[in-house]
Amino acid sequence: MLTYTPPMGWNSWNTFGANISDKLVRESADALVDLGFKDAGYNYVVIDDCWSKLERDENGRLAADEKKFPYGMKALSDYVHSKGLKFGMYSCCGVRTCANYPGSFEHEFVDAQTFADWGVDFLKYDFCYKPERANGEVLYRRMSMALRATGRDILLSACNWGVDNSGPWMRSAGANMYRSTGDIVDNFQSIKDIALSQVDKLCYGAPGCFNDMDMLVVGMYGKGNVGLGGCNDAEYRSHFALWCMFNSPLMIGCDIRTLTRESAELLKNKGLISINQNLDCRPSFVANSVDQHYAFARQLSNNEYAVGFFNMDETEGEVYCLLSDVGLTQDSGYAFEMTDVVTGEQLGTFREFCHPKIGAHDCKVYKGKLVKI
Asked: Which parts of 102-253 are beta strand (E)?
């Protein structure tokens, strides 16, 4: 199995869009290692759209833009691999990519072999310019087959934005992760809308194929390709915690070379990442929802549970969770020994309910160990 838990890495699109280069990708790979992100689990370096020439070469193959990537993709892939990381690239199931570069429609097998020859480990596969009568499920199945035919392990990141009711069939089509939403932008409304739109779709993610809620905007602060408005640190904390609670792949989208200390610490938070990477891979469920206050709970391995409290309102307030809605009854003889996973603070035992006070757009995430009392 290519990925038992949600993939983690960095993608160029959110900040850089078309402004990518060999130098940028090498420096980003260096930063992942030097700043401790590789050790935290982020191991994919992914180039998004706009890397290729505008047309295929004389042999009908995709070719890198020589101005952006003067040494070629194999040399860049070798460099990324030399850092102990994995190399990812982008294509599209349509005739053209979303930025109007050559797509892989009816070139799936030759493109897959090209990627394999370059040492690619991850393919983000988009959905733009798909012929109207072409079946999207078949196109993803076709690229999955083409990647397998190369003999190289290449993770397929399907990006059809959740259209065609894709959740029920993406696993059978061979995807390892699949976009279930439209594009994220760097503001809290976008984060909130995406997260809440996925609550009834979380059951489709499981080992080997994960529901992808799009790349992270943590650390962008309004800068870059999708930097529309920006967020504060509390909003980024809610964003990252929701993606971790919801088992989404964690693909950093900011300029990792210039991260603030607060954003770097959040993205490397061991407690939140441990929830995202928990081997049980069970989906979260709604434990409480009142107005703009939400409590999501999730069963973990080793008799542990995660409970996330999210205040999506504009003012501070208490967010409630009755532990009976998680499954714990007062007469069970058990309680939850709670820890704040963001701060590491030991919170004591809880038997009936939790109701932390939380600032506007902020969150708290607790991990509860089931203990006999």
From this structure: 122-126, 155-158, 177-179, 210-212, 250-252
